[in-house]
Design brief:
six-stranded mixed sheet; 36% helix; Rossmann fold; alpha+beta; Immunoglobulin-like; six-stranded antiparallel sheet
């Protein structure tokens, strides 16, 4: 790889010299030669572009300027970047594999990472971050939980939009809104103010102001920062002290190295100092994920965060132009919290004004779902959840760690099915939902069955299908069928685009289509 990279640099420099000193007409003619050289060199570095007319790994069609003022490039992904996910295959029920088990999640990290990558002109990064389950988690849905259970399931089954010979099954898990009147919050805001944050620190500070402005009067708040060392900026204030908290935020400046360990230790020191029994005790971390001083290995950080979560102090991670998505994703997962990716002011508003309050309240611990298919199903394929699947033994283990579901959240799992008949003898599939009450630790179970095709499906069934189809087209899935950006835009009627976030999704589809079309042109 290094030899190829040096070869690429040498060729680029040689042609740069020719371009600078050559005749003006030569410059114009050589422009396309240089672009061709870049493409060929990159292909040799990466083993070529993907086949069957695919759009390969690197793409910057217009020299797009990204949100931080630097030109989007053909940069080779570094060692931290998310590897390609091996898609789930179709599983034949006759082989005895009739159950599919998943650990549920509220995390929506993938959607904003994909959006930023597309806006920066990088299809490679977008493709490798497109986890379908997290793309689905990003949006609010119209499903309602009007039962006494913390979680309920809503099941749908209808024709698959990208393969009319198959069917799409939707397993929706809807969380009940938490009753929060008597629950107090102990929040420690942990801010990375190292030099690597400088280009995006204005967005970080706007996020913090939004967070402060939405605090409840009784919330206990401390702010800890870290750069070359950790620093307690303020401690034990309440939501009534908004002016003082905002002044602390205004005084933060980004510079220095990244001593993450010191900051994390001081943040948990504050969390324990103001710990509220029976309340929500949480550290909210804002960072680019670049820990270069102290405990930098994923294993050390993960064990530290896991131990703190077992003590009742949970972790929410907010990534900004993250250097290491995997670290933030893993830390939040082991800290019984969510991971968010903040790529713009729209996202800062969504997270810190609309969602963070809900995410403080866990309504179900160790949530997992089993789908059992009958003999009337020939085969099934789970879309996404590649890293969150469980064996039957793990599903039956009451002590097995699984996902945490936040207040009022909607989690969606989609399956593509091949059916023997449209009129089953019993049911097409049965769901078993298991979770623990976060306070009493009592084990709960909810069972539901789907015995017929949906007669009048929920409008959000269609929208979930849009998100899945977009992801299949983006990743050039071998199971994409008729999925395409054109097909998707034709189906996305305005009646379904009823809020700014769904409008944003439609724009994302259009922008992705333009990038791909320009590359293939």
């Amino acid at each position: 790889m290094l030899i190829y990279f040096l070869h690429f640099l040498a060729d680029t420099l040689i042609y740069s010299v020719l371009l600078v000193g050559g005749h003006p007409n030569m410059k114009i003619q050589s422009k396309y030669l240089l672009l061709g050289l870049l493409a060929v060199s990159l292909a040799s570095c990466n083993g070529g572009y993907s086949g069957y007319g695919g759009y390969g790994n690197y793409y910057n069609p217009k020299g797009n300027q990204n949100s931080y003022g630097t030109q989007a490039s053909y940069a080779t992904p570094d060692e931290h970047y998310t590897p390609d996910v091996v898609e789930n295959p179709f599983v034949e029920v006759k082989d005895g594999s009739r159950t599919s088990n998943v650990s549920l999640t509220s995390t929506s990290f993938a959607y904003t990472t994909v959006r930023e990558s597309i806006n920066d002109g990088s299809l490679y990064y977008a493709k490798n971050n497109a986890r379908i389950e997290e793309m689905l988690n990003y949006f609010s849905y119209g499903y309602v939980n009007d039962t006494d259970d913390a979680l309920v399931t809503k099941l749908e089954l209808d024709t698959c939009p990208w393969n009319n010979e198959h069917y799409l099954a939707s397993v929706v898990v809807k969380a009940k809104p938490a009753i929060t009147q008597n629950v107090k919050n102990n929040i420690v805001i942990l801010v990375d103010k190292s030099g690597s944050m400088s280009s995006i620190f204005s967005l970080v500070k706007r996020s913090l102001h939004t967070l402060v402005d939405n605090l409840g009067n009784d919330d206990v708040v401390s702010i800890v920062s870290y750069a070359s060392s950790g620093k307690i900026e303020c401690e034990g204030l309440t939501g009534k002290d908004k002016s003082r908290l905002n002044r602390v935020v205004d005084g933060l400046k980004a510079s220095g190295s990244t001593y993450g360990e010191d900051g994390i230790e001081k943040a948990y020191e504050m969390a324990y100092k103001y710990f509220i029994e029976g309340g929500n005790n949480r550290v909210v971390l804002l960072t680019d994920g670049d820990f270069n001083v102290g405990k930098v290995s994923g294993t050390e950080l993960t064990e530290l965060i896991k131990q703190k979560a077992s003590d009742g102090v949970y972790l929410t991670c907010c990534g900004y132009r993250s250097h290491d998505n995997n670290t933030l994703y893993t830390l939040a997962d082991n800290g019984n919290g969510n991971a968010y990716y903040i790529d713009c002011e729209l996202e800062a508003e969504k997270v810190f004004e609309e969602e963070l309050g809900k995410s403080l309240y866990v309504v179900a611990k160790d949530a997992k779902c089993q789908v059992e298919f009958s003999d009337d199903v020939v085969s099934y394929r789970l879309l996404g959840y590649e890293t969150r699947q469980m064996s039957d033994e793990e599903f039956d283990d009451k002590n097995k760690d699984a996902g945490e579901i936040m207040s009022d959240h909607t989690t969606v799992a989609l399956y593509e099915l091949e059916l023997k008949t449209e009129t089953p003898e019993g049911f097409f599939f049965k769901t078993t939902l298991r979770y623990k009450d976060p306070t009493s630790e009592a084990n709960k179970e909810v069972i539901n069955t789907k015995a017929e095709l949906s007669v009048s499906r929920h409008a959000d069934f269609d929208f979930a299908g849009y998100i899945a189809e977009y992801t299949l087209a983006l990743t050039e899935s071998q199971f994409k069928g008729d999925s395409s950006f054109n097909h998707l835009l034709e189906r996305m009627n305005d009646e379904y685009i009823n809020d700014k976030y769904r409008d944003d999704f439609k724009s994302l589809v259009s922008n992705t289509k333009e990038l791909v079309n320009n590359y293939l042109a």
